[in-house]
Structure to design on (419 residues):
């Protein structure tokens, strides 16, 4: 394949991935997590396995489109599933644990790709085909196990006693209003109004710029990190191995930052600090690449950037989910935020062009530009949340009934945004 064809195969995945995230999240609760999540895992594991037998550009392009369809529901589904069990001040640690599993998987996928590539010629297949085939089969096996191990909701969890179920449900339903002095339960029933509210919520669209400021660098480094390292003069196999320490360190930092964020009940200071690290990392990359002859400095810059990206990402997802009230509005809102946000992958997959190697100044510069916009979005969200909370503190209590406040969700005077 040519360079542009390869980039197209990376890009088309994100179109279907974005399109199917909202329907998938709405179906998650109606069909039960224990059925929906393993089902889509089986589907995408099957598609991944079949990617190992494609013969040309068209076949790979179609396979990537279907991979986007089948994989669309997993991350937003799991992120939403966590909010069904954990309160706002507990969620980021769990989001980070899940996301760090992806980071560790990124580390071991480098080791795995290094090992599986040695199977070149087995069964008449090239080594890269065996990577897709074996990882796809493993996904299907894990999905089958998940059918029997995932619990659906606290209300139906058999490992909890009746009083424990009541306690978990109560703390989840009243968490958004507990600081207002008027306890109001979040709505749990479905209305199309809640989906429309999610599509028209200002915070999701401002949050998208924050998301892009984190995810453009995330996808850019994930898709092209081995290529960038290889262009610095290392062999392909060594380039795969050099990605491992980056991902392991980033996973540890993501969990540590999430723990401190949950303990403090704050999101924005930690996201902002991590985005500073991302910006510093790409500034180092640009400076070292422009100077030339400093592969170690470029590697260090990418290392610092990734160590900012991985803690910032679960913080960004958690912050928006913390401030969406009503189960179905949160479901749709998180899917919009993550789905449209992941269009950054379509952009980032074209940042690092073959023609720009080995310096990739354009790619590093574009990533830095998105980080700068993300900074502004974090400041804008924090300022608006603080302003609205202050205004609600001044409102007289009892202006609306509990039922009206419940229906309004996070727009109710009793609701307080997490900063």
């Amino acid at each position: 394949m040519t360079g542009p064809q390869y980039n197209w195969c990376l890009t088309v995945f994100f179109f279907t991935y974005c399109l199917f995230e909202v329907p998938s999240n709405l179906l998650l609760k109606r069909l039960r997590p224990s059925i929906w999540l393993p089902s889509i895992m089986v589907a995408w594991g099957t598609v991944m396995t079949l990617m190992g037998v494609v013969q040309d550009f068209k076949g790979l392009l179609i396979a990537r489109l279907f991979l986007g369809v089948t994989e669309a529901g997993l991350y937003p589904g799991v992120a939403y599933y966590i909010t069904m069990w954990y309160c706002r001040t507990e969620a980021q640690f769990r989001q980070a644990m899940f996301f760090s599993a992806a980071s560790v998987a990124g580390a071991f996928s480098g080791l795995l790709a290094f090992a599986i590539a040695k199977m070149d010629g087995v069964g008449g297949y090239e080594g890269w085909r065996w990577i897709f085939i074996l990882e796809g089969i493993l996904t299907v096996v894990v999905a089958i196990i998940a059918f029997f191990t995932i619990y659906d909701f606290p209300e139906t969890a058999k490992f909890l006693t009746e009083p424990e179920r009541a306690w978990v449900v109560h703390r989840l339903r009243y968490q958004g209003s507990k600081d207002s002095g008027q306890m109001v339960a979040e709505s749990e029933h479905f209305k199309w109004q809640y989906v429309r509210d999610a599509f028209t919520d200002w915070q999701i669209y401002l949050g998208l710029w924050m998301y892009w400021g984190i995810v453009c660098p995330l996808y850019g480094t994930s898709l092209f990190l081995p290529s960038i390292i290889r262009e610095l003069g290392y062999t392909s196999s060594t380039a795969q191995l050099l990605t491992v320490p980056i991902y392991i360190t980033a996973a540890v930092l993501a969990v540590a930052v999430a723990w401190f964020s949950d303990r403090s009940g704050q999101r924005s200071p930690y996201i902002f600090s991590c985005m500073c690290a991302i910006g510093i990392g790409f500034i180092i990359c640009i400076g070292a690449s422009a100077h030339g002859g400093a592969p170690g400095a470029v590697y260090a810059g990418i290392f610092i950037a990734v160590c900012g990206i991985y803690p910032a990402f679960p913080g960004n997802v958690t912050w928006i989910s913390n401030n969406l009230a009503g189960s179905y509005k949160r479901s749709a809102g998180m899917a919009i935020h993550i789905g449209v946000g992941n269009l950054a992958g379509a952009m980032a997959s074209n940042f690092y062009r073959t023609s720009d190697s080995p310096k990739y100044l354009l790619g590093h510069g574009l990533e830095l530009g998105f980080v700068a916009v993300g900074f502004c979005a974090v400041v804008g969200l924090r300022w608006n949340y603080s302003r609205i909370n202050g205004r609600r503190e001044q409102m007289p209590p009892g202006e609306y009934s509990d039922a009206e406040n419940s229906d309004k969700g996070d727009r109710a005077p009793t609701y307080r945004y997490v900063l």
